[in-house]
Specification:
The chain is mostly beta strands. Helices cover about 10% and strands about 35% of the residues. The chain is built from one helix and eight strands. A hairpin with a 2-residue loop joins strand 1 and strand 2. The protein is globular.
């Protein structure tokens, strides 16, 4: 499966791309997040609302059906301007929430 098939959306802060969100390849319902730099949870909530064009009830209200990233971790993302060729290191592990654990290499989700 290709990352581009999972409805990816860029995540931005201060006008620059710092990651992306995409549909879980297993359930095709929950959105997983991948940040290239450590991002505190409250910032992730704001960034996700902006990316998904949603409005929070309050500052702690996060979009339904998404899995936040660990606030102290950032992935290495190559080709941060093209979902077709992006590689993410290390793996994305959302298994604690019952979602996918796997790799994205050259835009291919494995």
């Amino acid at each position: 499966m290709r990352l581009s098939e999972l409805k990816p959306v860029w995540l931005e802060r201060d006008g620059r791309r710092i990651g992306f969100t995409f549909l879980c390849p297993c359930c095709l319902k929950n959105r997983l997040t991948c940040f290239a730099e450590p991002t505190p949870f409250r910032d992730q909530v704001k960034i996700m609302h902006a990316a998904l064009c949603s409005t929070p009830e309050d500052e702690d209200d996060w979009p339904i059906d998404w899995v936040p990233s660990k606030a102290t971790f950032g992935w290495t993302l190559s080709n941060l301007d093209n979902f077709e060729t992006m590689t993410v290191k290390p793996s994305i592990d959302a298994s604690a929430s019952g979602n996918w654990h796997g790799w994205i290499t050259d835009g291919e989700v494995k």
